[in-house]
């Protein structure tokens, strides 16, 4: 029995609910999305599926790293989630998703976004790297102003 317990947690990321939700999303997508009828639709479907796989892949890769690197990989996973939001809209417009699949995809992606965000905050709290709200607000304001020179670009923290 002890050997079974060790095997169950050998790949720690498999114990994360977030990882399970992300793989469930990819599986659902592969089962749900309509068969592409053209070369353009095939490219869309392949890209959409790849982005959905990237969510789980980045969670898995990041979990094997230190906390700072794990946070970085989780942010990349959030990027993949946002890509899936875009692909969801395009899939609906192209007829690859019906209204029900479109809404379900968006709900799952919102849930994944919340889960990734919560894990990032948890990591930041455990490492003491969580910035204060004022610092985050100031950083957002920096992105709203035009970049004037290379020195300004170097001052902006792009890890959000």
Describe the model.
The chain has 160 residues and is mostly helical. It has one domain (12-129): 23S rRNA-intervening sequence (de novo design (two linked rop proteins)). The chain is 76% helix and 0% strand. Helix 2 runs antiparallel to helix 3 (39-63). The longest helix has 29 residues, at 99-127.
Summarize the structure.
It contains seven helices and no strands.
* Count of distinct structural domains: 1
- How many strand segments? 0
Instruction: Label the overall shape.
Output: elongated
Helicity, in percent?
over 70%
Strand content: under 5%
First and last CA, distance: 43 Å
* Structural class estimated from helices and strands: mainly alpha
CATH fold-level name: de novo design (two linked rop proteins)
Query: What's the architecture in CATH terms?
Result: Up-down Bundle
Query: SSE order, as H and E?
Result: HHHHHHH
CATH superfamily: 23S rRNA-intervening sequence
CATH class category label: Mainly Alpha
Are there runs of 5+ residues with pLDDT below 50, and where?
A: 137-160
Helix run count: 7
Q: What's the alpha carbon Rg, rounded to whole Å? A: 19 Å
Main sheet attributes: strand count, strand direction, barrel closure: none
Q: What attributes characterize this protein structure?
A:
single chain, 160 residues, mainly alpha, de novo design (two linked rop proteins), 76% helix, disordered C terminus
Which helices and strands, and how do they pair?
Elements: H1 2-8, H2 17-32, H3 39-63, H4 67-93, H5 99-127, H6 133-144, H7 150-155
Helix pairs in contact: 2-3, 2-5, 3-4, 4-5
